[in-house]
Design a protein that fits this description.
Elements (H helix, E strand, L loop, with lengths): L1 E9 L2 E7 L15 H11 L15 E9 L4 H9 L7 E9 L4 E5 L2 E3 L1 H8 L8
Antiparallel strand pairs: 1-2, 1-3, 3-4, 4-5, 5-6
Helix pairs in contact: 2-3
Length: 129
């Protein structure tokens, strides 16, 4: 379950810390409220394709960190184990995107490739819009 999402310098968002509860979470709001930016940030953390255009206009880099709890998918745990990453009570994934095009991805603080980040997070979140 996605428990927490921290967003820094993504589009118009300077900094945002969201906490989610178990069950259904719904983002609502008027046009221009930033719902799509939050979804773009989740996708960034999950390893989806990203553009430098996501980085806030006056910032050098954007960063998103997602905290997941209650990980019970055996495939995810196997990927972590095979990669030498300890499966703890929570899974923390983060991704930093720089103006120079450099991506920095981490799982539980360990530097990982974008493909490993994506293969680990593929089964964590379902987004419907």
């Amino acid at each position: 379950m996605l428990q927490r999402l921290c967003i820094q310098n993504v589009a118009l968002i300077d900094g945002l810390d969201l906490e989610f509860t178990s069950g259904l979470n719904v983002l609502t709001g008027e046009t221009g409220a930033g719902k799509s930016i939050v979804i773009d940030a989740v996708n960034l953390a999950l390893g989806e394709r990203a553009s430098r255009e996501l980085i806030k206009h006056d910032a050098e880099k954007a960063k998103v960190e997602a905290v997941f709890t209650d990980i019970d998918d055996a495939r995810i745990l196997t990927v972590l184990e095979e990669s030498g990453i300890e499966a703890e009570d929570e899974l923390i994934v983060s991704r930093e995107l720089s103006q120079n095009g450099k991506n920095v991805c981490r799982i539980n603080g360990t530097l990982v490739t974008l493909s490993l980040l994506k293969s680990t997070t593929d089964r964590l979140v379902d987004i419907h819009g």
